[in-house]
Write the structure tokens for this entry.
Amino acid sequence: MSLQASPTNSESVALTYFNDYQARTVEAIAERIIPANGADAGAKQAGVVYYIDRTITGFSTGLQRVYRLGLRELESYCDREHSARFVNLTAEQQDNILRKFLGNETGGGAIGHPAGLVQPAAEGLDRDDEGSGIRGEANLEVLRFFFAVIREHTVEGYFCDPIYGGNREAVGWRLVGFPGAQWGYTEQQMRPGFDATVIPIKTLSDLRRDLKNLPDNKQYYANEGK
């Protein structure tokens, strides 16, 4: 499994927290949450792992421990159940693990806490970091918590602005027909039924480059000239 991404800027493909193996595992999990489907890119192509890596070294540093413990417990679980690492399992085996901890694709799973509100010392994660206090059912709780967090981060990384590391080439926005960051919308574009996919996609980086040539605000005024 390669961690190569389309941008050539070395900073856009650098890992700031995960080592290479951790990143490959996170990438593999994210790809099963949002898999590629024909022409539609999955989480791997979108660079979701880079979004997650930047997130837990930036705004969500408190979740580093969730990933560290979760990845360790996942490897222990896979070794017990399959005598293999998660990245070496088949797609079907990986999917079955996700279903166990997240529920099926249509019904979802029971999550004790909204992942976005997780605190560093959340339940089940404030015990001995070497594992001496985490045994049996507690292991499963750690994994349920971990998968809940990574699912939320995967969705965020797939649909965020590319400046945050994910949604490479705006693949998430293209999938849902979202035109991205726009200065505004014309009266015609705001009408019900308008096909937003014909609007050229813009990112925050595009808007920054456009600062010297701002569009005429008159085009966004519905009653202008009437």
Remarks:
- Residues 179-220 form one domain.
- Confidence is low (pLDDT under 50) at residues 1-10, 114-124, 128-134.
- The radius of gyration is 21 Å.
